[in-house]
Amino acid sequence: MRRSQLFGRTLRETPSEAEIPSNRLLLQAGMIRRLIVGMYSYLPLAQRALHKIENILRQEMDAIGGQEIDMPLVQPAGLWQETGRWGMLVGKELTGFEDRFGRQLVLAMTNEEAVTDLVRNQTNSYRQLPLMLYQIKLKYRDEPRPRAGLIRVREFTMKDAYSFHADEADLDRYYAEMHHVYLNIFQRLGLDVAVVASDPGVIGGYEAHEFMLIANSGENKVIFCDGCDYRANAEIAVMQKPQIDNGDPEPIEELRTPGQTTIEDVANYLGVAKTQTLKAVFYSTDDSLIFAAIRGDIEVNETKLKNAVGATDLWFSTDEELRRYGLVAGYASPIDVKGVRVVVDDSVASTTNLVAGANKPGYHLKNMNFPRDFKADMVTDISMAREGMTCRHCGGRLTERRGIEVGNIFKLGTRYSEAMDATYLSRQGRPQQLFMGCYGIGLGRVLASIVEANHDKDGIIWPPAVAPYQIHLMYIGKGEDVHQQAESLYMQLRAQGYEVLYDDRQESPGVKFKEADLLGMPLRLTISKRTLDADSVEVKRRTEAEKEMVKLDQLDPQRYLS
Predict the structure, then answer these.
(1) Is residue 231 helix, strand or coil?
(2) Can 3-73+108-236+400-451 and 253-380 be said to share one CATH topology?
(3) Which residue in 266, 191, 258, 271 sits closest to 447, CA to CA?
(4) Superfamily of domain 253-380, CATH level 4
(5) How far is it, in rounded angstroms, from Cα 562 to Cα 540?
(6) Could you tell me how far CA 256 lies from the centroid of its own chain?
(7) How far apart are CA 551 and CA 180, in angstroms?
(8) What is the CATH number of domain 3-73+108-236+400-451?
């Protein structure tokens, strides 16, 4: 491709919309352009990289018996109603609408329902199992908080695969195999990932793992143990909570605490440690108010709380909502509350003589004890693991890092087959529920993550396997002989099967070199008067500062690309 004909121009200034390095560099390199928030056009250079990512995904999926299909983006709402996800998601991340015939439809954000419907109508015998189907398909999610360029968008292309099995043991076997394949995929893509336990979320199922690129720009918090191999998304990570000995339960006592509404205020005012306080955090759902009671030194983990109460979504309650239930913000207590679901963290259940609100302004209670003084609808772990805490598994120290999720895998079990009556006939001729797994990789997010992991102050550094072009060829200086030599080399390299971006423009050497570093092709070849006189070409890898002169008749680009 001649640079003079390439669609898409580079930018000298940092775009105002850029939030993280990959977003900035892809915009500056003329590879993507934003249409509206959360929606991007991929220009020719990015599209070429995406095609290479797709090819790697197809090769790896085909290698483990996957069969590629293509399911519609628009799906009947009835399928989502069968599984119950219509009520959970429509009007939120799932976009529903009616066609001209009055039929309810959705724009697919994932395809568990559609693929289960497909398989239940095509597969009826154990002889057809196991089965894995995959697609590389455009999806739409009405993302409430698009951010960081391609990392969190509304419209995206995804490789989603779905496996079907006769029993749980075969699902476990295949899940482990897919885990290994994913590691191979990311290695080929130039991404060093960490595999962490994760929350299945709205996809459902009973086990899930995320493949995380550790990066400061990541939106996920990941918890690692420095003493064992425990690693998990902070949404589900567990920790050993410090055991606090406040003595045997003592009689409850009311104390005046004017103007003291936060844990820090109360602890300082009364001269007690935060570990001796009870924190009250209130959340609302579509049909209830949740009183989350946790020890004052620990934060509530909203994902754990949602899972515990079976809520699709929850949000902080307003003061008006609290007043409706007789609760006073800053002075609330779980004692004698009515019409509220009380969820107690196990840290509260194991700590005596806590200070908590008295349910009236300006007062707190000392020596509150569970279950002597108040009841709970549920006692469970709703705590947020954090840096410096103790690993529950080995006693090691937990550390916290940020990561970008580049892939995920789920054990769905019979979550969808039961809801949609997807069965097969066993060897004994009996109907049995299908066991399912699903496995996703977002292509745009992977593209951005590759740039996030492979760049320097000058621009992108594409791994050879996914670079839009293998070689960036240019000539610098004046003289028809220099130009003709570059033209000749361009034709020669293309004839040899190399992918070449040829900068044939009449620009200064500084502009050409700067742009070559920004675009980041693995190998740069430069023709100049100096190289022409030596019957040579200047060769430079994007990953290295050194350049070398190579005789034209001895040039072997593959040596530098392998």
Answers:
(1) strand
(2) no
(3) 191
(4) YbaK/aminoacyl-tRNA synthetase-associated domain (3.90.960.10)
(5) 14
(6) 47
(7) 43
(8) 3.30.930.10
Q: Which residue has the higher pLDDT, 381 or 242?
A: 381
Closest CA relative to residue 110, chosen from 134, 153, 88, 139: 139
Are 295 and 345 in contact by the 8 Å Cβ rule? The answer is: yes
DSSP 8-state secondary structure symbol assigned to residue 264: H
Whole-number Å distance between alpha carbons of 418 and 238? 31
**Cα–Cα distance, 326 to 291 (Å, whole number):** 12
Whole-number Å distance between alpha carbons of 77 and 74: 9
Distance from C-alpha of 387 to C-alpha of 398, rounded to nearest angstrom: 5
Within a 13 Å sphere around the CA of 426, how many CA atoms are in the beta-carbon half?
Answer: 9
pLDDT digits (tens, 9 = 90+) for 324-376: 888 888 899 899 888 899 999 999 989 999 999 998 899 999 999 999 999 99
> What is the C-alpha to C-alpha distance for residues 242 and 354, in angstroms, rounded to an integer?
15
* Domain range annotation of the chain: 3-73+108-236+400-451, 74-107, 253-380, 471-561
Residue 157 and residue 194 in contact, taking contact as beta carbons nearer than 8 Å? no
Residue pair 230/393 in contact (Cβ under 8 Å)? The answer is yes
Q: If 0-12 CB within 10 Å is exposed, 13-18 middle and 19+ buried, where does residue 507 land?
A: middle
Structural tokens at position 63: 């290698």
- Whether 358 contacts 331, CB under 8 Å: yes
Q: How far apart are alpha carbons 362 and 257 in whole angstroms?
A: 5
Terminal C-alpha separation, the chain: 22
Tell me the pLDDT of the chain averaged across its residues. Answer: 95
- CA 258, CA 110: separation in Å to the nearest integer? 52
Q: Which residues pair with 433 in a beta bridge?
A: 423
Q: CA 504 → CA 55, 476, 477, 526, distances in Å?
A: 30, 9, 12, 11
Q: Do strands 523-527 and 471-475 pair parallel, antiparallel, or not at all (unpaired)?
A: parallel
Q: How many other C-beta atoms lie within 10 A of the C-beta of residue 310?
A: 7
The tokens for 255 are: 């104390």
Distances (CA, A) of 356 to 26, 350, 414: 52, 15, 43
Give the architecture (CATH level 2) of 471-561. 3-Layer(aba) Sandwich (3.40)
Residue type, 431: P
Which strands form 104-107's sheet, in the order they lie side by side?
A: 74-76, 104-107, 95-98
What digits encode the pLDDT tens for the residues 451-508?
999 999 999 999 999 999 999 999 998 889 999 999 999 999 999 999 999 999 999 9
Contact 423, 431 (CB under 8 A): yes
Q: Can you give the three-state secondary structure of 294-323, one letter per residue?
A: EECCCCECHHHHHHHHCCCCCEECCHHHHH
Count how many residues are written for the chain.
562
Q: 169 is written with which tokens?
A: 């043991």
For residue 310, give both structure tokens.
């079976």
